[in-house]
Amino acid sequence: MKNLLIILTTLLTVPSAFASTVTGTWNVPAAIPDNDETGYSSSLTLSETVNPWASSVSVHLVFTGGWNGDLYAYLVHGGKLSVLLNRPGRSAGNSAGAGSSGMTVDLSDVETLDIHTSLPDAGTPVGAFQPDGRATDPLLVLDTDGRTAPLSVFNGRDVNGVWTLFVADLSPGDVSTLESWSLTIQTIPEPSASVLAVLGVAGMILVRRREP
Fold first, then answer.
1. What is the pTM of this model?
2. What are phi and psi of 157, to 5 degrees?
3. 3-state secondary structure at position 79
4. DSSP per-residue codes, 16-49
């Protein structure tokens, strides 16, 4: 039983020793076409050969100007899609969405505030939020819609390759500029490598336990 407990503890703690962080940044300003569903897209290509598997993903977005409630944004990689912004503030009683202008936000599933319901109607918000996650038609989206497209859709997937951010402005009258965006990805080794490493450590523990 003691040996089993040691092995289980090892399985839980050793993978963290192999974790690393991958980052990528795009910082050339681009105006988002006003009232145009074709939108704008920007791509980053990542290459991580040591620890290629995502365990968590966060996104940093910087916008200036515009009307935040007009914005629809999602992140795509490896056939998966996470909705970052979906007309934040839009509800049955507020079809225009949040009236604040520009934002500097960090989006992560571990935060407590939902960006759809937490952006103010004035000023330029700064802070950390959960991504919108509402995979709903942005012309119809409401705050009560289910959140089915968080950033965790990328967990367990290979980080290598192209990550594409798409942003559209879906209502006329104001122009938002995407100043920069970046990814921070916590990664772990390929699952087979992690298992082998853990089993190797566990085997050493068992051998040592058997020694007189």
1. 0.82
2. -105, 155
3. coil
4. HHT-EEEEEEE---EEPPTTEEEEEEEEEEE--S
